[in-house]
Amino acid sequence: MTRRGLLLVQDPAERAELRPVVDAIAATTFERWLSRRTAEDNRPEHEFVVFGAAMRIAEAERLPVSGKLVVVCVTFLHDTYAIHRITETAIRDRMKRDAELAARLREEKARQRIEHMEGGARNAVLLLCELEHPDRPGQPIVAGDVRERCAAIIAAHDCWKLGKPHPAASDREALVCFEADALWPLHPLGVLADLERPGESGDPKDVDDPDEWRKQIRHNLETLREYRANWDGTGEVFQDSVSIFRTAEGHRLYREWAGLWGAPLPDGSRL
Questions:
Q1: Mean pLDDT, to the nearest integer, of 114-132?
Q2: Which pTM does this prediction carry?
Q3: How is the chain split into domains, by residue range?
Q4: Which of 57, 166, 172, 256 gets the most CB atoms within 10 Å of its CB?
Q5: pLDDT tops 60 at residue 83
Q6: Radius of gyration for the chain, computed over Cα atoms and rounded to the nearest angstrom
Q7: Is residue 152 packed enough to be buried (19+ CB in 10 Å), middle (13-18) or exposed (0-12)?
Q8: CA–CA dist 190, 261 (Å, integer)
Q9: Residue-wise over 67-99: b if at least 16 C-beta within 10 A, else e?
């Protein structure tokens, strides 16, 4: 998956510079955190799928190699601090029975998301200070400015899930990371991760039931659409009237991945 992602970078010199960094960070992150994930958290493929989408968007947006290095670091290190997830589905279900409890759940979700972002930023700094560049013994895996940008993006990467208009399109590196991460719930492995995650009953959904898959993808599409309201009144320019995608390539992937399921997009169109 990392090789396929790197092949999306057209310039051979850029690929050569990115490859040892991708290999070292991906391998270390997988060994230290991703391989130990439980179904409650996420599937270990998450970062690798996001990496491929991020490289497509970064290349289309013509990020320089320094920007791509930031994106690589964020991609593999943004979710290293696990939390007990409170899902939007759980909040909606509680809202039907107990609005006060649903409000408390939403407050707790915000608190845990902040903890998740801050913890991930700390993990990123520690790892990027620890790793040496495979081809340059004694030198850090990335320069200090790349490390600082990575930590800053991770420290705010889920703010959009807290109702904030983040990131702005002017922050191109953060925007690439945001759109690649937001695409995960539309990828088959992302949908599977949602189905495998235990609900309030403690049991996962039936992953062999096609209706559960259709229901989950409809829910994921609707959730992405709802977040669009975060940017109301900001003047941000989007690719359509309902989705959260501002880059042309991110929007293309959104329509492509949603189209895999034969489900109508939130604007009513089908692929």
A1: 97
A2: 0.90
A3: 2-259
A4: 57
A5: yes
A6: 18
A7: middle
A8: 13
A9: bbbbbbbbbbbbbbbbbeebbbeebeebeeeee
Q: Cα–Cα distances in Å, from 181 out to 41, 50, 175, 243, 250?
A: 15, 6, 10, 14, 10
> Could you tell me which of 33, 38, 80, 75 has the C-alpha nearest to residue 53?
75
The predicted structure's pLDDT at residue 44? 95
Q: What's the token pair of residue 166?
A: 């983040």
Give whole-number Cα distances, 28 to 52, 141, 177, in Å.
Answer: 18, 12, 20
Which single residue is written with the structure tokens 């290999």?
23
Q: According to the model, what pLDDT value does residue 35 have?
A: 95
Confidence label for 202 from pLDDT (cuts 50, 70 and 90): low
| Domain covering 2-259 assigned CATH 1.20.272 in the classification | no
DSSP assignment of 50-117, as one string?
Answer: HHHHHHHHHHHTT--HHHHHHHHHHHHHTT-S------HHHHHHHHHH-HHHHHHHHHHHHHHHHHHH
Query: How do residues 20-71 score in pLDDT, each as one tens digit?
Result: 999 999 999 999 999 999 988 999 999 999 999 999 999 999 999 999 999 9
Q: Which tokens in the block code for residue 50?
A: 């996001």
What is d(CA 100, CA 117) in angstroms, rounded to the nearest whole number?
26
Coil, strand or helix at 188: helix
Six-digit token string for 64: 């320089």
Long-range contacts from 229-234, C-beta under 8 angstroms, 24+ separation? 230/160, 230/163, 230/164, 230/165, 230/166, 231/165, 234/165, 234/168
Q: What is the rounded CA–CA span in Å between residue 230 and residue 228?
A: 5
